Amino acid sequence: MFDLHGYFPMILEGMTLTIEVALLSLLIAVILGLFGAIAKLSKSRIARSIATVYTTLIRGIPDLVLMTIIYYGGQIQVNNIGDALGWDYIDISPFVAGTLTIGFIFGAYMTETFRGGILAVSHGEIEAALAFGMPSWKVFLRITLPLMVRHALPGFGNNWMVLAKTTALVSVIGLHDMMYNAGVAGGATRQPFTFFLVVALMFLSITGISDLGLRWANRRYSVGVRKV
Amino acid sequence: MDYNVIIDNLPLYLNGLWVTIQLVVIALVSGFGLAVPLALMAVSKTSLLRFPAKTYIYFFRGTPLLVQMFLLYYGMGQFEAVRESVLWILFKEAYWCAITAFALNTAGYTAEILRGAIEQTPFGETEAAQACGMSKSTMYRRIILPGSFRRALPAYGNEVIFMLHGSALAGVITIVDLFGAAKIVNARYFVPFESFITAGFFYLCCTFCFVWFFKWVEKHWYAHLRPRIS
């Protein structure tokens, strides 16, 4: 269908990197999101305000800008601190910067999703658990967490899709991901459209497969919910 | 930290802000115009209408905005036919490439939001409309669409903010928007932290304006849902 002039392996290599970045940052995002949601719903005012500042700042600034702040700016800040403490020069690789930034950004979105999910759990269930004498961490692990999955799943799925697509931005800070390689191949063969279309199809396959998985999970977690 | 450079270059940033606003507003308005018919097609029972709309939505929601923009900006020049047609006036300018990509992208997302909202119309409402003897078009115009716009509002507010954030990508293809301005300042004076933080600050202000605006609209449109204060 496409004449790729033997550049296909290079695109595939880029895709592996893209998937690595995506999955690692998803892990960071979920962990940050859970902590963020707990902080946002906690009784401590300090925890609440830290979480609020985090989500507001992150969701207010474009991911691309955040990434450049962390990659270019963070490099300088880290070494300024390092100089003061007498460390050697520390090099932040684009992989680390990209993964951390994306994880950090989507942690904020996950916080909101999980918070909404937790709030949607009907209060009676939690009351019943408390009435059984469960300590609050047990209520969270056994009742709130499993029940909130159903409510949080659509939002989680959306966040994951957006996250997977955001990984394309790491090419801007010089990581040799799928986009970057497609740019190189497109420039060399003078067929940029073909190569970017291949990248688009690759992303479609990633999101398509995720969609199937999420649909399955959604069905699985909505068992017992009546539908019109 | 050296913020004197930033203050000296404030006009550059403000100019960038103006470009960003242009990009976002033009893209949002034309994207919304495209999204309404797309959403109506996507809920249609005729597969000939539904299939193209669903494919469009699937493609634009499933691929990164950066790829879509590069397809237009770098990719279109690959075709002799495009270079010789009138479209080339549009596609040879980075500015119009970015706006076209943004508009097509946001149309896909908005159509999906509207589709969801239309499908969530309570059955009782359409049943009542049918019982009143409304034709299908009247029902859409008077019952389904107004209710759907209202239901779609929170999600659409998010989409608007995503579009604002997405517009930073324009800086990648040589447009001097806010991000482009930060890139120029960084390249001239090598102040990566200060230059990008400043752009981030401006984006933050824009986001707050949008959030505030949507809160205000929601207050109007959701007035009937607010608890009454006696």
| Fraction in helix of chain A | over 70%
CATH class of the domain at 22-172 in chain A: Mainly Alpha
CATH class term of chain B: Mainly Alpha
> Quick one: biggest sheet of chain B?
none
Oligomeric nature of the chains: heterodimer
Q: Give the radius of gyration of chain A.
A: 21 Å
Please tell me how large the radius of gyration of chain B is. 21 Å
Distance between the termini of chain B: 54 Å
Let me know the average pLDDT of chain B.
90
Class of secondary structure makeup of chain A: mainly alpha
Question: How would you portray this structure in words?
Answer:
The complex is a heterodimer of chains A (228) and B (230). Chain A has 228 residues and is an all-alpha fold. Helices cover 80% and strands 0% of the residues of chain A. Chain A has a domain at 22-172: MetI-like fold. Chain A contains eight helices and no strands. Chain B has a single domain, classed as MetI-like (MetI-like fold), CATH 1.10.3720. Chain B has eleven helices and no strands. In chain B, α4 (65-75) packs antiparallel against α7. The longest helix of chain B is centred in the N-terminal third of the chain and has 33 residues, at 10-42. The termini of chain B are far apart. Chains A and B meet through α2, α3, α6, α7 and α8 of A and α3, α4, α9, α10 and α11 of B.
Structure keywords:
heterodimer; A: 228 residues; mainly alpha; MetI-like fold; 8 helices; B: 230 residues; 11 helices; flat
Write the layout of secondary structure elements.
The complex is a heterodimer of chains A (228) and B (230).
Chain A: H1 8-41, H2 45-60, H3 63-85, H4 94-120, H5 123-131, H6 136-166, H7 178-189, H8 192-221
Helix pairs in contact in A: 1-2, 1-4, 1-7, 2-4, 3-4, 4-6, 5-6, 6-8, 7-8
Chain B: H1 4-8, H2 10-42, H3 47-62, H4 65-75, H5 80-84, H6 87-91, H7 94-119, H8 123-131, H9 136-166, H10 178-189, H11 192-221
